[in-house]
From TrEMBL:
Its cofactor is Mg(2+). SUPFAM superfamilies: Nucleotide cyclase. Residues 343-370 are annotated as: Disordered. The chain crosses the membrane at residues 37-55, 61-78, 85-105, 117-143, 155-175. It holds the Pfam family GGDEF. One of its GO terms (molecular function) is diguanylate cyclase activity. The keyword Transmembrane applies. Keywords: Membrane, Transmembrane, Transmembrane helix. Residues 216-348 form the GGDEF domain. It catalyses: 2 GTP = 3',3'-c-di-GMP + 2 diphosphate. Its EC number is 2.7.7.65. InterPro entries: Diguanylate_Cyclase (IPR050469), GGDEF_dom (IPR000160), Nucleotide_cyclase (IPR029787), Rev_trsase/Diguanyl_cyclase (IPR043128). This is diguanylate cyclase.
């Protein structure tokens, strides 16, 4: 199978959901939750205003009705978008004011609204801000309770509000951890533990910026295991997986700390070398080649020899990140054509016309899908 065909097939079989970044997914989720909370706030206030009209509390009824109309308008206006912090603060402040007023005028009846407001606050704000904001609200409600309902009940309310604050804080911390984990999972290749292709564009663009701004060189190495299909067919896919893991581990031993190693395809690896000319990168590539070829690999069921073909390309000031990737890809293709188990440089390779279907175009297509 042609290399580019193989990659396009891989691209098609990856679920779209996985190609979205963790941040995009979480941002969309937060937008949805925040919008729904404001809608719920608006509709609840509209219903409550009706009840106040029936009870004859006209001033309260108008106040609550205005809040309900405002919240509903905000939810409608910002539908599917991030609601600005100031609007969220206004939402919570208005609800708090209405609840405090209700506690003063109606005693216990107002108390019931303190709980959903605290919970909403945890959803509307994130991290430490939500913890501090809910604590402040709990204190405000407690003070109002001591003023408007019997003392023993005020204590009970204060304790239950503080319990909600504590539970909510645990929820915020867990969510934060989950977000970090999700972010890591999205950019990690689960088989080898290397970075997958998600951050490639970002890392290459940073290298381009450093070259343009500070004239710092950078080079790429693209490495592909030779005849890996044959190895899979002979020893099985699980054996192939063991070899892939060991190859990744061996590669690490040659690289410096600030070199970035990605697994960008099935048996294909990309290395971004900061501060390296093409000659430096070719030296590293040659070390990698001999490190893989000179020592056998031991899987659970067999011991095999494996070889690696590598392409090398230095970043030039006229390169976009896609062109740079395609340059190294073409050099690798050349290494394959010339017999495999060797290193080829982009400077000695004629650029390919089919750059549009190369690895650069594929990673670009994945980024655009995010
Ligand atoms: N074990 C294992 N195999 C994989 C994985 N991803 C891709 N492959 C296999 O890698 C092989 C790649 O085969 P080809 O595209 O024909 O390439 P090749 O046999 O290495 O040939 P050249 O690259 O031309 O030297 C296929 O058999 C894939 O199934 C993986 O995660 N684990």
């Amino acid at each position: 199978m042609q290399r580019n065909e193989k990659r396009l097939l891989m691209q098609r079989t990856e679920p779209t959901q996985l190609t979205q970044s963790a941040d995009t997914l979480l941002r969309k989720f937060k937008i949805k939750v925040t919008g729904n909370i404001i809608w719920a706030g608006g509709i609840t206030q509209l219903i409550l205003s009706g009840a106040q009209f029936v009870l004859g509390n006209v001033v309260q009824a108008w106040l609550i009705l205005s809040a309900g109309v405002f919240f509903s308008a905000v939810a409608w206006f910002y539908h599917g978008q991030r609601i600005p912090v100031l609007v969220r603060v206004a939402f919570i402040t208005l609800l708090t004011a209405i609840t405090m007023m209700s506690m003063v005028l109606n005693g216990h009846i107002g108390v019931y609204w303190t709980y959903p407001i605290l919970v909403a606050c945890f959803f509307l704000f994130s991290g430490a801000v939500s913890i501090v904001a809910t604590l402040m609200l709990a204190l405000l409600f407690a003070v109002t309770a001591f003023y408007s309902i019997p003392l023993d009940e005020s204590w009970r309310l204060t304790v239950t509000l503080l319990i909600i604050c504590a539970l909510g804080s645990v929820f915020v911390v867990l969510l934060d951890e989950l977000q970090k984990l999700l972010r890591k999972l999205v950019v990690t290749d689960t088989l080898t533990g290397l970075q997958n292709r998600h951050l490639v564009q970002q890392v290459l663009e940073r290298a381009i910026y450093r070259l343009q701004r500070y004239q710092r060189p950078a080079s790429l190495i693209m490495a592909d295991l030779d005849h890996f299909k044959r190895l899979n067919d002979t020893h099985g896919h699980l054996f192939g997986d063991q070899i892939l893991k060991q190859v990744a581990e061996r590669m690490h031993t040659v690289l410096r700390q600030d070199d970035q190693l990605f697994r960008v395809g099935g048996e294909e690896f990309l290395i971004v070398l900061a501060e390296a000319s093409e000659a430096d990168a070719a030296t590293v590539a040659e070390k990698l080649r001999s490190l893989i070829a000179d020592q056998t690999f031991k899987g659970k069921t067999a011991e095999v020899s494996v070889t690696l073909s590598l392409g090398v390309a230095e970043l030039s000031p006229r390169h976009t990140w896609v062109e740079w990737l395609n340059a190294v890809d073409t050099a690798l293709l050349n290494a394959k054509r010339l017999g495999r188990n060797q290193v080829r440089r982009a400077s000695e390779t004629k650029p390919e016309k089919s750059a549009q279907s190369g690895i650069g175009a594929i990673i670009e297509a994945n980024s655009e899908a995010n």
